Amino acid sequence: MRFVTYTEGLGILSQDQRSVIPVSDILPRTAGMSMPQLIAALTADDMATLANTAASSNCIPIDQVKLLSPIPRPIHDVMCVGVNYLEHLQEANRVSTGGKFKEKPARSIYFSKRATEIIGPEAEIISHPDLDPELDYEVELAVIIGKTCRDVKPEDAEEVIFGYSVFNDLSSRILQREHKQWFRGKSLDTYTAMGPCIVTKDELPFPLELDVIAFVNGEKRQHSNTRLMMNGVAGLIADLSAGTTLEPGDIIATGTPSGVAMGMDAPKWLKAGDTVTVEIPEIGKLTNYVK
Known about the structure:
The protein has helices spanning 23-26, 35-41, 44-53, 86-95, 173-178, 233-241; strands spanning 2-6, 9-13, 19-22, 60-61, 67-68, 78-82, 109-113, 124-125, 135-136, 139-145, 161-169, 171-172, 192-200, 211-216, 219-225, 251-253, 275-280, 284-290. With 291 residues, the chain is an alpha+beta fold. It starts with a strand and ends with a strand.
């Protein structure tokens, strides 16, 4: 199933993805819930009910609703993974880190990304050129946690996943360099985008092999596959849950491949008027406009 948030509430997409079915029409007790609250509340029977009755329920044409990010306001900061693709590690080392990553890190590099609001499809990215003119894009797979968990073993990781989405980890590169860590340069307002939906884990075989692609003004900038992550989804969940409780609706951004503006000899930074689209074909496309 594909779960969405729209201005009137929570929904699931029809099989042809042309309509939205309000979840509360099928499960009235969920009326008024946020997506994290829904994820925490759903039972196996609820999921079966949604799957079995959606086709006969009230459908709203998708062009009559405004889709938001599936999780507009996360319950915690987004958990992010740095340099999780070898080619991105190499381009980061070459242009911006002064040799910080001369070889593959022994352990994954984690940081958090503050997002008081996660923007969704067709939303505007505020470029903040007064703070930093070097605005960059990063296509990533987002993993959405489905149950409260801690100390998850890699072989059990799929059990705690609710689903997956498409993520754009927008970044101000000067701020990122000047602060010697990544939180500040990645946490400006509108710098977190996710959508258009959450695809439940049963739709995508584990371990994942998903293309991740980014376009700017129609030009393909990034194209790789999640099978090339240095630490896969199972390893990331095991790491991040070790001694730390993860909760339903928590978001893990799994890292970006090469092809970001930072890695170019003549960087093509995002600027006002640009259109950026990040895509995972099995999940969907997320398009935003730079203001």
